[in-house]
Amino acid sequence: EAGVAQSPRYKIIEKRQSVAFWCNPISGHATLYWYQQILGQGPKLLIQFQNNGVVDDSQLPKDRFSAERLKGVDSTLKIQPAKLEDSAVYLCASSPSRGGTDTQYFGPGTRLTVL
Amino acid sequence: SQKIEQNSEALNIQEGKTATLTCNYTNYSPAYLQWYRQDPGRGPVFLLLIRENEKEKRKERLKVTFDTTLKQSLFHITASQPADSATYLCALDDNYGQNFVFGPGTRLSVLP
Q1: Are the CB atoms for B101 and B94 separated by under 8 Å?
Q2: Cβ-based contacts of B89 with chain A (< 8 Å)
Q3: Nearest chain B alpha carbon to A55
């Protein structure tokens, strides 16, 4: 079974530029998560999708971050414009359904550096 | 305010000893608590889940306890090996999947 795929693996941009990250979850997984992990900290949930609907986006900075999950499969996370404090690893995870007993399967992440 | 704390940023132990990592939480009422392992440059990998009505869970050399009165989970690795060196994250599910929160992690180093 293929794991969660993310691209690109690394991205370096100047502040105020835009960037987009892509995630392909494990086939058949209904729930998709985007996390931000700043160096030395645990992952912070940005947004959670159940199929193609948003379950929780309370910690997503909506003035600059947006995310979509078309057709309930792949997802993209966009930052526009980027700030220095957005430098972090962006992790995508998926799980078969929604709920705390579900194991989350994580992708390798995209390391973003904003200069 | 709500908070999750893990005992220390880094823990060094000798090979063969038991590593004990702690996870304390404040102002959460988790139904479940999970432990993940994260290696440098990789995403977290699920290890164990324990429910609020379970006191202890085991898997091979791993053991997790969950005390809802103390608001604490302990994660033990027995007969530790250098390959166990990684960052260990606790995560709790507050409100049945509506709010999934990770702790800051503890970086474990097992010295040969």
Answers
A1: yes
A2: 42-43
A3: B98
Angle at B89 between CA B104 and CA B74, to 5 degrees: 105
Is any Cβ of chain A less than 8 angstroms from the Cβ of B28?
Answer: no
Asked whether the beta carbons of residue B101 and residue A45 sit closer than 8 angstroms, the reply is yes
**Roughly how many angstroms between the first and final C-alpha of chain B, as a whole number?**
41
- Residue whose token pair is 């164990």: B48
Q: Which among B31, B99, B103 is the nearest to A42, CB-wise? A: B103
Residue B55 DSSP class? S
**Both ends of chain A: CA-CA distance in Å?**
37
pLDDT tens sequence across A57-108: 989 999 999 999 988 899 999 999 999 999 999 999 999 886 667 789 999 9
Q: Please answer yes or no on whether A108 and B42 come within 8 Å at the CB atom.
A: yes
Q: Quick one: tokens of B47?
A: 């290890």
Residues B5 and A107: their CA atoms lie apart, in Å, by 25
Residue-wise pLDDT tens digits, B4-63:
999 877 899 999 999 999 999 998 888 889 999 999 999 999 999 999 899 899 999 999
Quote the minimal CA–CA distance from B44 to chain A in Å: 6
